[in-house]
Each structure stands twice: as structure tokens, then as C-alpha cells.
Design brief:
By secondary structure, the protein is α/β, with parallel strands linked by helices. It has 9 helices and 6 strands. It folds into 2 domains: 141 residues, Rossmann fold, CATH 3.40.50.1000; 66 residues, DNA polymerase, domain 1 (Orthogonal Bundle).
Length: 219
């Protein structure tokens, strides 16, 4: 397999152990406005953007007055209560350093909002390694639609066959596949191998991928 030119990187659940925190922030924001949404229901949707999560949980659009209110509350709760406690997964920084040393361009492809991405990368101690980023702010539709992956490809300046998507959810795999990009999946975000079917390869976490890098699609 030819060496890949770019790694399109999901952040939450892939590099940063944050999926549960995001789900809990949504649950609390919903509750503040009178909506009782179980944690498990929200948790299975983490990886999608608010444009998907809000209609699928309480049947409102993100750009509605209620949707915007809930989204703002969720962001405030997440930043104040949960973000300061988050840590990168073991090996996350070392993995990105190894990819960068191989000449692989590091481009974020996340359903997070642009105004949150900087804080997430800083908390994970990865800010200095990222070269470009595509967020839900750059796309009409979030994952599992391919918009964010396609925006990341444009930022990377490469064709789909020259990139690999690194993610942790079925939505990452589906979005990459729709964009013609091969996906590597990590189990650390909480999904099992059956849910991650369609990925070119599956590893436990960034450290596991780093250990097996030579045998991976980045080898």
C-alpha cells in the first residue's frame, strides 16, 4: 500500500477521552430546558453534530430557538465543568509525532464546533502538531455525512486515496467511506468491532496503533 499523505483526525473519543463528558453535558443542557433524555440515548449519538443529535433526541432543529438555546447551554456546561478534567488517550501525542515524522500531514476532521476545537486540542496537548482543521462550522451537515471529511481533504490538498481517516465512531467510518477515504477505527471511543465494520483496520487506542504503525495503513 502506498504511503498516505494525510491523516484526517477525529478528536473526541479518538485522541481525547471526552465522549462521556460530551454526552453528560448534553443531558444536563436538555434537563435545564425540561427535556429528560437518558444518558445512554445521547451517548450512542456522540460523534454526530448537534444538527443530527437534536432532531434525533427531542425532534428540534439545531437552528431553531430551542435548539440554539440547548446548544449554547451544552457548550457552557462542557467548557466549565468537563473540559478541564479531560486527558488525551495514552500515546496520542506520540502517535501524531510519529506520523508527522513520516511526512504525513495532520488535519483535524471533527463534528465539534470551531470555537471548541482549540480548547480541546490544548487540553490534549496537541495544538502544536495540527496543521489544518475542518469542523462542523465548515460543513453543511455533520458526520455521518461526508461534508467534514471532504472539507478536510481540501485543507490537506490531497485526493481521497491519499488520506486515511482516524476515528472512533461508526459515524467517522461512514463519513470517510462516503468521501472515498479509507478509515482506521479505534475502540477507545466506546464502540465495538461490529459497530466499526467498514474500517480498514481497528486498534484499541492511539498507543496500540503507534505500536503497530509499520503494519498499519500508515506503514
Amino acid at each position: 500500500m502506498a504511503q498516505k499523505k494525510a491523516a484526517l483526525l477525529d478528536v473526541d473519543g479518538t485522541l481525547l477521552d471526552s465522549n462521556d463528558a460530551h454526552a453528560q453535558a448534553w443531558v444536563e443542557a436538555f434537563a435545564q430546558l425540561g427535556h429528560d433524555v437518558p444518558f445512554a440515548r445521547v451517548r450512542e449519538l456522540i460523534g454526530k453534530g448537534g444538527d443530527k443529535l437534536l432532531p434525533e433526541t427531542i425532534g428540534v432543529e439545531k437552528d431553531s430557538a430551542l435548539g440554539e438555546d440547548i446548544s449554547k447551554r451544552r457548550s457552557a456546561i462542557f467548557k466549565k465543568t468537563y473540559l478541564p478534567q479531560l486527558r488525551a488517550f495514552p500515546g496520542a501525542r506520540e502517535l501524531l509525532e510519529a506520523l508527522k515524522a513520516r511526512g504525513v500531514k495532520l488535519v483535524v476532521a471533527t463534528s465539534a464546533q470551531k470555537d471548541e476545537l482549540g480548547a480541546l486540542l490544548k487540553q490534549a496537548d496537541l495544538s502544536d502538531l495540527i496543521e489544518e482543521a475542518a469542523t462542523s462550522s465548515d460543513a453543511e451537515d455533520s458526520k455521518p455525512d461526508p461534508d467534514i471529511v471532504m472539507a478536510a481533504l481540501r485543507a490537506a490538498g490531497c485526493a481521497p486515496r491519499e488520506a486515511v481517516m482516524l476515528g472512533d465512531t461508526p459515524y467517522d467510518v461512514e463519513a470517510a467511506t462516503k468521501a472515498g477515504v479509507s478509515a482506521i477505527a479505534l475502540r477507545c471511543g466506546g464502540w465495538d468491532d461490529e459497530a466499526l465494520q467498514g474500517a480498514l483496520a481497528i486498534f484499541d487506542d492511539p498507543r496500540d496503533l503507534l505500536r503497530k504503525l509499520e503494519a498499519s495503513p500508515f506503514g
